[in-house]
């Protein structure tokens, strides 16, 4: 059944400027949703409505807002399988992974419901008598959130849950190609009792959303921008926000390295590299980019990794597979471009490349009319190669070698991204030296580059982000501002740094 969905602003369906079809990438002829896309003025209008709604929402006591977050978690939990199946249908994510994604929303709600009772400030001693100093967390106002569709429900919850908990109103622009999943999540949030206008969902293409954000920032109706997507678009949003003296929360792409030391458990490293490289068909910001393997174990690792990839199940995402289809036609077209980055000095060790079809099958699997692609491992990648330096969003992993840990760290940092990283070793000294020197905001030891928990900070540096963090208590700094207050009850004007009592020491005293 094809769904018909439009933006919801102030609790009411909004008129659309143009139409878009969200498809099932495993069966491209199947339309999952007919989506009405909004224009720039509609986006800006949603921000104005949110600005009105946030005043009353901010007055709701934080523990009460926390109970709303708790209700969202329970609603998602009760609808987990239905929501996960919709995610699988709309973006082709394997069902087991989709269930894990939905679980992440529940975990996020479970964490933040308690933060409603822990939005702590401080009582600070004053340098003067009869005077107290305080700090308070206050909501920023309206948050405009723009998210990608590879994690169509989990990643948005990283923004929406803490933003709402802290007393902000939200305008959320999800990816068009994941509109049905986003609309379903919006309905679950709304069912928890959020007042109209506190959470608004606007479906729009990138150009309209950017123009609308520009309008809203100029009008002063948006105080925080959150964006998850490509580094290229993130730069443009960062520039736009900078013109309005705002610091956005940017979670961008990655070229995530995995270092395999000579003392590593190779079977474990191969298992981690398989999941990191090809889970979600390599379409995660934390997907493995390059395996940096010690030259002494290179051949053994590549042999095992090649076999693991060749034996991995690819197909219908409703089944037990590691790889489903690519997310949408535009990602398939981009992946075709990435395949042109394979150079003559490279060695594709996994066999066929490109789309899986009857003419280019993977064993007996012919793709069945979906956007399925052969997983690719490219050995012999060099530090100057485009394949080494740039993010490749899809099922392709490069392999290169190193001699010393210092060289491995240099290779890990060279692309200039800084999201996730991994090292496989049994030597604690190597693990801690890697931690100290790697530029990534996140690292794993003897684990894959992918996998976040709801109570740890998530985010990157360099081309992967501007240092902002999501998840855990750290994200509260994105959606609150510190306010300082001093209360003088002395009955007279006391001037800081001027009317301070001084106790005179005898600095010339000697034993």
Automatic annotation (TrEMBL):
The record's listing under InterPro entries reads:
Ald_DH/histidinol_DH (IPR016161), Ald_DH_C (IPR016163), Ald_DH_CS_GLU (IPR029510), Ald_DH_N (IPR016162), Aldehyde_DH_dom (IPR015590), ALDH7A1-like (IPR044638)
> To which protein family does this belong?
Belongs to the aldehyde dehydrogenase family.
* Protein name in UniProt: aldehyde dehydrogenase (NAD(+))
Residues annotated as catalytic = 251
User: What GO terms are given for molecular function?
Assistant: aldehyde dehydrogenase (NAD+) activity
> Could you tell me which residue ranges the Aldehyde dehydrogenase domain spans?
15-484
Q: What's the domain of life for this entry?
A: Bacteria
């Amino acid at each position: 059944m094809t769904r018909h969905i439009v933006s919801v602003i102030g609790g009411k369906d909004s008129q659309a400027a143009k139409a878009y079809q969200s498809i099932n990438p495993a069966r491209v002829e199947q339309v999952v949703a007919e989506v009405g896309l909004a224009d720039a003025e509609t986006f800006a209008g949603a921000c104005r409505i949110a600005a009105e709604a946030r005043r009353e929402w901010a007055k709701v006591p934080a523990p009460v807002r926390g109970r709303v977050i708790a209700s969202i978690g329970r609603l998602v939990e009760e609808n987990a399988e239905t929501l996960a199946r919709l995610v699988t249908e709309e973006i082709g994510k394997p069902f087991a992974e989709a269930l894990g994604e939905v679980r992440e929303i529940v975990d996020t709600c479970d964490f933040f419901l308690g933060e409603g009772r822990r939005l702590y400030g401080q009582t600070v001693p004053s340098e003067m008598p009869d005077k107290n100093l305080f700090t308070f967390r206050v909501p920023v106002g309206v948050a405009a959130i723009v998210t990608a569709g590879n994690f169509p429900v989990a990643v948005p919850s990283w923004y929406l849950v803490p933003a709402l908990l802290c007393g902000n109103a939200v305008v959320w622009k999800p990816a068009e190609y994941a509109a049905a999943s986003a609309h379903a999540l919006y309905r679950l949030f709304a069912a928890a009792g959020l007042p109209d206008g506190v959470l608004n969902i606007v479906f729009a293409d990138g150009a309209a959303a950017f123009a609308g954000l520009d309008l809203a920032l100029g009008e002063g109706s948006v105080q925080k921008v959150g964006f998850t997507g490509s580094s290229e678009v993130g730069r443009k949003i960062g520039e736009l926000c900078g013109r309005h003296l705002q610091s956005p929360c940017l979670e961008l792409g990655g070229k995530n390295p995995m270092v395999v030391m000579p003392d590593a458990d190779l079977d474990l490293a191969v298992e981690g590299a398989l999941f990191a490289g090809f889970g979600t068909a390599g379409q995660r910001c934390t997907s493995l980019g390059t395996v940096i393997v010690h030259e002494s174990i290179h051949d053994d690792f590549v042999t095992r990794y090649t076999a693991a990839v060749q034996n991995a199940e690819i197909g219908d995402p409703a089944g037990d597979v590691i790889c489903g289809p690519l997310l949408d036609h535009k990602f398939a077209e981009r992946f075709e471009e990435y395949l042109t980055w394979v150079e003559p000095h490279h060695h594709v060790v996994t066999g066929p490349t490109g789309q899986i079809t009857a003419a280019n099958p993977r064993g007996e699997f012919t793709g069945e009319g979906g956007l399925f692609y052969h997983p690719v491992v490219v050995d012999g990648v060099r530090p100057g190669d485009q394949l080494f330096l740039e993010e490749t969003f899809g099922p392709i992993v490069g392999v290169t070698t190193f001699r010393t840990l210092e060289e491995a760290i240099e290779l890990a940092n060279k692309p200039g991204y800084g999201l996730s990283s991994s090292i496989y070793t049994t030597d604690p000294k190597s693990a801690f030296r890697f931690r100290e020197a790697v530029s990534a905001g996140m690292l794993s030891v003897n684990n894959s580059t992918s996998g976040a928990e709801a109570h740890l900070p998530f985010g990157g540096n360099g081309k992967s982000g501007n240092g902002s963090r999501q998840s855990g208590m750290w994200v509260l700094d994105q959606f609150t501002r510190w306010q300082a207050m001093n209360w003088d009850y002395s009955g007279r004007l006391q001037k800081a740094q001027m009317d301070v009592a001084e106790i005179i020491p005898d600095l010339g005293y000697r034993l």
